[in-house]
Amino acid sequence: MNVTILCGAAATTIPEAGIEGESLWLAPDNLARATGWEWKPEGLCRGSACVPVPRGNAAREWVRETGRGLSVSLTQLARHLGQPVVASPEHGVWAVGEAAEDVAERLRSLEAPDFTLPDVVGRLHSLTDYRSRKVFLLAWASW
Amino acid sequence: MITVALDSAGAVAAGEWIRAASPTHPSLIDVHYEVALRYNMVNVPTAVWIDEQGRIVRPNEVAFADNRWIEYTKFDMTRYAAAIRNWVANGPDSVYILKPGERRSRLPLPTAEHALAAAHFRLAEHLHETGHAEAAVPFFKAAQRLRPESWCYKRQAWALTDAETHYGTSFQKEVKALGGRPYYTPLSFPEEKAQP
Question: Are strands B2-6 and B27-30 parallel, antiparallel or unpaired?
């Protein structure tokens, strides 16, 4: 069964995953594709950040050997990072949210969070493109 | 000025409004509510003032161009337009620029429950987008339950389907249920005073 992982705006479809209730196990290359977290000797890393994977019995909640090789628990990684995970196993969709503390920390810095979004003809604009100008940012909706 | 349409239906929903306005500023479309998440917004219209260094100098607040929705804002929006002009003319010396401590105290910060609500909303909009509108409803409801102050979660879900059938409510009913409490967080503005 294909599984789709929603991480931020991205939706990544993975052809094979281990599903146990709402827990999701992925091969390391699929985990990296969906989330950017890579399996390395020092643990799970994204950019300069690394999460050491526990050893011994505790490691079983994080990583396991399967007939097809190593499998890593996306659910456990998200829990460790304070990221919420919401799943609809019936539809093969897992949403991994941002950790509240990460969003809060960025806001507390008063640095305006960057974003890159399309205009109506699909041309992308980033907030940082407008650095050195005052920006009046206005969110609206058609609804 | 940069405008961002928070709209799960994307250009299908927001496009006609943008084309009708023919804006000269960047007018963007945010299908997955990325801006709402990063700035922790719960309603529209919501404005943020950002200075030349990319720093927030006035956080989230309601902003209309005129007074057609004064029943909801309870604020004379002509004062708001004048404040923006004052900022453009006076920059960091504008009386409307908040001190860093006040900016932080006004910034709404998300809790773990808010983050969980956002994940439910993201899953719901994906299910809806991929043809599972019925299956999306419980997840939209969960987002609304976890973050009841978010009109974005309510009104977006209602707009994608029949609100009365699937949610047993409507915008008018929900506004009535406020029972006099404000629909928008009241604007906090300095007293009018002369500034060159």
Answer: parallel
Q: A132, B52 in Cβ contact below 8 A? A: yes
First-to-last C-alpha distance (Å) of chain A: 35
Q: Which of residues 30 through 89 in chain A touch B, CB cutoff 8 A?
A: 82-88
ipTM of the complex: 0.95
Question: Tokens representing A143?
Answer: 């609804």
C-alpha pair distances (Å), B34 with each of A106, A117, A134, A139, B38: 14, 9, 21, 11, 6
Q: How far apart are CA A100 and CA B186, in angstroms?
A: 25
Q: Which residues contact A66 (CB under 8 A, 6 or more apart)?
A: A18, A25
| Residue A91 DSSP code | G
Query: Could you tell me the pTM of the whole model?
Result: 0.95
- Largest Cα separation within chain A, whole Å, is 57
**How far is the C-alpha of B178 from the C-alpha of B134, rounded, in Å?**
28
Give the nearest chain B residue to A90 (CA atoms).
B135
Sheet with strand A23-26: strands edge to edge: A18-20, A23-26, A69-73, A63-66
| Residue A115 forms contact with B (CB below 8 Å) | yes
The chain A residue lying nearest B64, using CA atoms, is A138
Q: Where are the domains of chain A?
A: 3-101
| pLDDT tens for each residue of A14-41 | 998 999 888 899 999 999 999 999 999 8
Query: Cβ(B174)–Cβ(B152) under 8 Å?
Result: no
C-alpha to C-alpha distance for B159 and B7, rounded to whole angstroms: 10
